[in-house]
Amino acid sequence: MDNLATTWVGATAKQISRAVRRGDTTAVQVVADHLEQIGISDPSLAAFRVVRGGEAITEAEKVDDQEDLANLPLAGVPVAVKENTPVAGLPTWFGSAAARSAVAEEDHEVVRRLRGAGAVVVGVTRMPEMGLWATTDGPDEATRNPWALDRTPGGSSGGSAAAVAAGLVPIAHGNDGLGSVRIPAACCGLIGLKPGRDVVPRDLGVDGWLGLVENGILATTVSDAALGFSVMAGRTPAKLVQPEKLRVGVSLRSPVAGVRPDEPNREAVATASKILVASGHNTVTAEPAYSTVVGLTGLATWFACAYQEAEASGVDLKKLQPRTRRHIRLGKLMIKRGWAKQSQRDAWREKSIQFFADNNIDVLLTPALAATPPPADGHAAGSWRSNMQVNMRYAPYAAPWNIAGLPAIVVPIGLRPDGLPVGIQLVGPPDSELLLLAIAGQFEVANPWPRHAFV
To answer: Its family (predicted)?
Structure first.
């Protein structure tokens, strides 16, 4: 733990909230510790777009002044919020000065819930322009992976993942439209949960990115992920229940034709399968029915979302990055030709739900990524084609489950030979978020992972 500012940096959200509620420390002290650590580490990471500093201390004082802390499950916990989600008093950046909106007058509902539980927003974290990419960089700044500064923390919730992996906050908010929580979780060795449809308030962009996007959580422990999820879902935090004997489908097949997982990602799935069996579960081969139609539906929706977001915001397209402009142009074409149809997304959702019944499985296990995280730099200035190739070749496994609206989680499994984390993805039917978290808890007990990569 080199460069740690004080003892509260690196503590879990549950440890911090318990200590604040008991009076063992104060929210002000905890937040001050984390702000100091952000000052030490963030210059090399660029995880944050804005650090709230004095405002966060004032917010922490209000937590300490509350008469009854017992009902605050996140009392004094520093959190980060992804920059496309309104935080009162700050602009909503959307990954780009060109796309930035006016100062928000009120919090997004998930931010309101986090604050209502006693959490303190220390800042907003960086994302790629308009959240379109699985790398987090811009023309002047690249967010870096704490495990290897020359590598990306993923995207689009890359800043949130980097902040958690470096111990700058114990948990962070992210949102996931085509893998934007799970991909950074896999890159940075974190738990990353994308809830299913209509579980956590969405209210992002035009119709929630045509139904693709969900607000989720990034954390270093399963209990912290479960706590953050419960708060954002408006639920009373509950202890996870040990799952009974499950039947787990296993698939290495990539949703993108011609892309195969590399050896470390295949080994991660093999290791996960052994852990599941040792935990009393059964594993069977089960191949989702990825098809050309599903792939084209995903692409058409991705493009269409970019166009609709640009139209709704009135952004000056000339000020956007070339890769983003082309994405928007393609989106206009998709909508004009009727290729981004809700009926196609609905059909895949129905087929995906039926997949669990047809194969008599409770959850599906897949790789989280297909390859090592790409370099941190150069993508914003690169061509649209090169960005598409990078995205689809290293991170193809997440997107189908956004189209289906099913819950999915990434769980760390270990380290690759290059020293970067490697993880797996678990997907479940509707309303299986707590089951996925409980299975992740079994992995955590059987195969503990390093919680931080301090820089």
So the answer is: Belongs to the amidase family.
